[in-house]
């Protein structure tokens, strides 16, 4: 058996071998697998049981939708099991982790993950908004996670993304260092997902130039409308 997780936090806490799979979801369109990543996934054919440990946050859901199509393409779907939780798994004790029951990965989940991955590469946020609207139960935590991703478009109200707003509010409350700001952002984010290294580029007042496949620099018409609770197009 091998466990796949988006970090080291469960290493030694769950039985079997362990593989970390991460993806910088904040850095533009989905990149192809590197040669090393591809080789890692190819080696999974030697395992009878592959358990995926992914919670509800955007980072985990984004890694999950990248992994599932790749594993299915290697004819591993019948060996895949998923632990999917609305709690952050890292802080859980060993007894609680052991009580979580993996479920077999289904074709519907693989298909939805492939669709989500294609939506992330799309040049407009409309395919991602459709995932939020449809709320396919195959991956029940994906819609809310994608919604949080879309909230980092500039807002119709003032042009600030949600993360930029949280950083500004943290500074206004007296946070100055990266650890202080990160702690405040994590505390106040309605759907926290971002690690400190992902947050750091926001501290200078900048922001990523891409949100998935959507370019969000000057001239981009795409916005998040907080009143309508969805993406909108200006102009």
First-last Cα distance: 53 Å
Dominant shape: globular
CATH topology of the largest domain: Rossmann fold
Q: What is the number of domains?
A: 2
Encode the helix/strand succession as letters. EEHEHEHEHHHHHHEEEE
- Order of strands across the biggest sheet? 2-1-3-4-5
Residue share in β-strands: 5-15%
The biggest beta sheet, please?
A: 5 strands, mixed
The CATH first-level class of the largest domain comes to Alpha Beta
CATH-level-2 architecture of the largest domain: 3-Layer(aba) Sandwich
User: Which range best describes the helical content: under 10%, 10-25%, 25-40%, 40-55%, 55-70% or over 70%?
Assistant: 25-40%
> Could you tell me the mean pLDDT?
94
Number of helices: 9
> Count the strands?
9
Rg over alpha carbons? 18 Å
pLDDT < 50 stretches: none
What would you call the structural class? alpha/beta
How would you characterize the overall build of this protein?
- With 235 residues, this protein is α/β, with parallel strands linked by helices.
- Helix content is 38%, strand content 14%.
- It has 2 domains: 2-121, Rossmann fold; 149-233, no CATH class.
- It is built from 9 helices and 9 strands.
- It has a 5-stranded mixed sheet with strand order 2-1-3-4-5, covered by helices on one side. A two-stranded antiparallel sheet has the order 6-7. The chain has a two-stranded antiparallel sheet with strand order 8-9.
- The model has no long low-confidence stretch (mean pLDDT 94).
